């Protein structure tokens, strides 16, 4: 990437930041739009929050719906995907003996969410082991469908996994869940802005995604998407001004004239909505800078870095290329103290990157966004070679 593009971000120059996947990074123009909204709010809080907010919230819903292939009435703003998925998990009418089918690749916060729900309802979690390395849609789908039983009430899957950075081929599993009357709940935390996404075509009952990661909006902007047929199942986690006692009745409206789904979730008393209101500016930034081309360059750089590290370690990848997240790759490294490697990478090399143990794999997960460059990838490979006593052969290989 060019230095001019990197300067459009706020990342500190003394850090090689290779961890966009965790919290994202917001471009300067988008952050400026976000701060302008905050200043406008503070200039007249009653007008902004009391008289204009309902109309203001509609514009980002429309922008997200257009970008991600749905109707704005099916989208509600939440602060992050975890909160959106908690709304779903804590709303579904589960009972003792019901089963939640999921995989061994899920995000730990959501594993805890479902464990909490099971403790309250008596439902059970059933974990499917995904065939690894992931090289076949058929093998994945067979494993998921093979885990379904008459007791399965919920299918919970990541679209792009957090620990293993895999794109799960979930389409046929979702169709089978619909056929069997199983609610499908999808963790799309890493998906919007990362891979093409049409929510209506995908057909999940519930889908929550972050805007602050790969769409590069300010932190605290995410959405919950629900098909119209299942919106009535949902209750907000916080009961406030948007809720009405008639919210479950057919054709009911929320307190602010939207659907009960939208008003109940979005209108929850005093909070700063500026991050969500800045979403259209992030979408515009991506279009103005031809982000499709930039993302393709990032994909090449990410995949090439994973290939080069694989040549150094001799360890096979976790998947074939089509199932690897384009700009985020979980790269196996030799057995090591991952916490110490993570510490050394940051303290001695100023490289910010996740290093962790997942099942029997030690992993370095690299994220590549428009502010990253080939020299930064070289720096990572050199640092890992030194820390893990790898051969440096191949670190200068052309991509």
Distance between the termini: 14 Å
Q: Can you tell me the CATH superfamily of the domain at 290-388? A: Aspartate Aminotransferase, domain 1
Mean pLDDT: 95
Fraction of helical residues? 40-55%
Radius of gyration: 22 Å
Number of helices: 15
CATH class of the domain at 290-388: Alpha Beta
Q: How would you spell out the order of helices and strands?
A: HEHHHEHEHEHEHEHEEHHHHEHEEEH
Annotated CATH architecture of the domain at 290-388: Alpha-Beta Complex
Give me the CATH fold name of the domain at 290-388: Aspartate Aminotransferase, domain 1
Structural class assignment: alpha/beta
List how many beta strands DSSP finds.
12
Strand content: 5-15%
Low-confidence stretches: 393-399
The largest pleated sheet is described as: 7 strands, mixed
Shape: globular
Keywords: Pyridoxal phosphate
Domain Aminotransferase class V: 27-379
Protein name: Aminotransferase class V domain-containing protein
InterPro entries: Aminotrans_V_dom, PyrdxlP-dep_Trfase, PyrdxlP-dep_Trfase_major, PyrdxlP-dep_Trfase_small
Give a structural overview.
It is a single chain. The strands form 3 sheets. Strands 2-8-7-6-5-3-4 form a 7-stranded mixed sheet, sandwiched between helices. It has a 3-stranded antiparallel sheet with strand order 9-12-11. The two termini are 14 Å apart. Helix 5 (81-89) packs parallel to helix 6 and helix 13 (291-313) runs parallel beside helix 15 (374-388). The relative contact order is 0.15. It has 399 residues and is an alpha/beta fold. The radius of gyration is 22 Å and the shape is globular. It contains 15 helices and 12 strands. A hairpin with a 2-residue loop joins strand 11 (355-358) and strand 12 (361-367). The chain has helices at 3-6, 20-23, 28-43, 45-68, 81-89, 108-121, 137-146, 171-180, 199-202, 260-266, 274-277, 279-288, 291-313, 338-349, 374-388; strands at 16-17, 75-78, 99-103, 124-128, 152-158, 183-188, 206-210, 222-226, 328-333, 351-352, 355-358, 361-367. The model is unreliable at 393-399 (pLDDT under 50). It has a domain at 290-388: Aspartate Aminotransferase, domain 1 (Alpha-Beta Complex). Keywords: Pyridoxal phosphate. It holds the Pfam family Aminotran_5.
